[in-house]
Amino acid sequence: QVHLVESGGGSVQAGGSLRLSCKASGYSYGSSCIGWFRQAPGKEREGVGIISYLGRTIYAASVKGRFTISQDNAQNTVYLQMNSLKPEDTAMYHCAASGPGCRSPSLSGIFYDYWGQGTQVTVSS
Q1: What is the C-alpha to C-alpha distance for residues 73 and 62, in angstroms, rounded to an integer?
Q2: What is the pLDDT of residues 48-67, one digit of tens each?
Q3: 32 contacts 102 by C-beta, under 8 angstroms
Q4: 64-81 per-residue burial string, b: 16 or more CB within 10 A, e: under 16
Q5: Which of 30, 71, 82, 108 would you call most buried, defined as having the most Cβ atoms within 10 angstroms of its Cβ?
Q6: What DSSP character marks residue 89?
């Protein structure tokens, strides 16, 4: 029933920007959190940025000041604006949605029940 579709990934040069989109269907934002996670080959999955239905946000220290998460309730979409991209940002980026009861966002993936297929971000130097 719940379906998350990511888009907006691609290949960019260091210092460039991308905006990722996560379109949700069959999902209610009520008491929930939606966020972005990334995983590079050989590395642990990392929570990048999360937003709760109340608008509270949290970011990984590695992206603070460069990435911004936002949401558009009318379009049922969450965005990740990625600026000043670095080669270490290269990863598969996944959108994820929690179940009910998420009022304070968490960067831990164990709190998220639904995951999108992912979109690849590659940053070259």
Answers
A1: 27
A2: 999 998 889 999 999 999 99
A3: yes
A4: eeebbbebeeeebbbbbe
A5: 82
A6: G
Quote the pLDDT of residue 100.
Answer: 80
Tokens linked to 80? 């990740």
| Residue from 10, 8, 12, 9 nearest 123 by CA | 12
> Phi and psi at residue 88, in whole multiples of 5°?
-70, -10
Residue with tokens 């990511």: 6
pLDDT the model gives residue 67: 98
Are the beta carbons of 52 and 33 closer than 8 angstroms?
yes
Sign of the four-CA dihedral 79, 83, 89, 92: positive
Cβ neighbors of 11 (< 8 A, separation 6 or more) are 122, 123, 124
So what's the pLDDT on residue 85?
Answer: 98
Q: How far is CA 6 from the centre of its chain?
A: 9
d(C-alpha 69, C-alpha 75), whole Å = 15
10's CB contacts (< 8 A; 6+ apart) are: 18, 120, 121, 122
Phi, psi of 112 (to 5 degrees): -115, 130
